[in-house]
User: Fold this.
Amino acid sequence: MKNSKKWVEKRLKFGWIAIILGVIVSTYGVVSELIIFGVPFDFRFITGLGILLIGVGIGIVVRYRAAAKDETAAKRITNEEQDERTAMIRAKAGNRAYWVSTVLIYTGLMWVSFISNGSLPPMNEDILWYYFAFATVLPFAVYLYNIIHDERSS
Assistant:
């Protein structure tokens, strides 16, 4: 039981580290945007990365906080996380999501390549942004769908 509790506490510590790093990175992004001018770089990317880290950290802390106080919950969550069947389902879902993202990114790169050599007409930057946003979100959706589907079917 002690190993389970240590494992949960380690995850909880990682969550708090992610939150602290997220706050630092977000603060740096906001301050840089306010005081640094004339650079061709948008500091909102840095702020966005910080917000992402904060969100990941909060998710981890919420998941493991109750388990850190209760040894039974710590044992249960450790068994769930380290279960071979669950690990196999996640790996399979991750593999499918990887292939979807590979195809989408390759398609996007070929699209831009054909535009640059004149085979396709120039594209609006907004369309490219939306395409790559879609190429980021769709693999995650494929991953979630496959986890849910494989959990139900096995």
About this structure: DSSP finds five helices and no strands in the chain.
